[in-house]
Design brief:
It is a single chain. This protein is an alpha+beta fold. 20% of the residues lie in helices and 38% in strands. It has two helices and seven strands. Strand 3 and strand 4 form a beta hairpin. The longest helix is centred in the N-terminal third of the chain and has 7 residues. 23% of the residues are buried.
Length: 71
Amino acid sequence: MKEIVIHTEYITLGQFLKLADCISTGGHAKFFLQESKVLINGEADNRRGRKLYAGDKVEVEGCGDFTVGRA
């Protein structure tokens, strides 16, 4: 499980996908989320504006499992 470190209070799911190298640009987030299964703390979610906080666990189909950490 990889840790994605953020320096702010939260990060959106779209930004997270880019930092996790699941997508190459933020513009791909909408289409990626329509086609791929994403679980946040065990619950399915496909909203690119979903706020992720330190301690959240994110599973991205075809990309991997991640945790959100705070610097």
